[in-house]
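Sequence in, structure out.
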Amino acid sequence: MKKLSFMFITAMSLGFCGSSLGHVHKTPTPEQTKSAQNQIVPGKAIISGGYEYQPHMLKLPKEVDIKHAHGLTRDNEDNIYLAFESNNINSKTHAIAMFDKQGKFIRYIGDSSLAWGSPHGLDLVYENGVKYLYLSTNWLTVSKLDMDGNIVWQSKESPDTAPYKKDRKKYRPTDTTTNPNSNQLYVSDGYGSYTITERDKNSGRFLDKVWTGQKSGKNFTVPHGVTYDTRTGNILVSDRKNERIVIYSQDGEFINVIEGEGISRVCNTDIWQDQLLVTNLYGSVSYLDKNNTLIDTIELNKVLGAKGHKHPHDAIFMSNGDIVIGTWKPGHLSYWKRLKK
């Protein structure tokens, strides 16, 4: 379960989620545009892509000075977990917030030590029936946490393998995923050397395997997210700047590429039943069918941009098909109820 994207400038080399926003998002169909515009009525429900916005849900405590809503995941009870970055960090700042399935804030997980270094990707995994969180932090760190935020293991160094050994390139992890039944943890280095590396999820040690995207026809450029595809057992890499999703086997063998309608600067993906959720940084969240063909799109920037919900950074399906979206610059959360068709 996942958990469940731009023309980079100098800021990316520093590990930040920065961009030049001059790129135009892929033009929606006339039907999508008409639908979105016709349903933005003051005092009325906001509907887009077959979903209805629930404005009363997912409110963070007032003391949270959020900068970016970075990573989202959920557990089997539909509790929602958010990894977020704050504008100011002190001894009382947190990095992970938990909500129940009604969208009510429950508690923080972990202390202020997790708030440093730009908390980013978040993945919840059941291991022998026990829940663990994997937190990726842009400044070198990947942490395995229990549900109280205690550190099971934490790595603060770059992989001990090529290309990091040879070129001493930077390591800026942005996301993780795993098949719950394996010991492999896949780590996307989205802001550093643009690789997917593997760790042993029990110990945190690196395994001698690095994916660069080369076999897919071009190297990764900002492999921002990585997702275990429960439909196929494959691994999906959100190759953001190349505007594609790259499919690999769990052993790192290239399989195929998903491109086209519904996919632009893809930050991350998630799976529900036979559908694929695609989070695009320039303003939309799309969902595709079992053949990876576009079904519909929540045009988030069009319908909620005026309220600050401009750049979707991560999104997840709930168990009933509802969708939760977190945004970058500024950080916001939104809950979208699936409408009956």
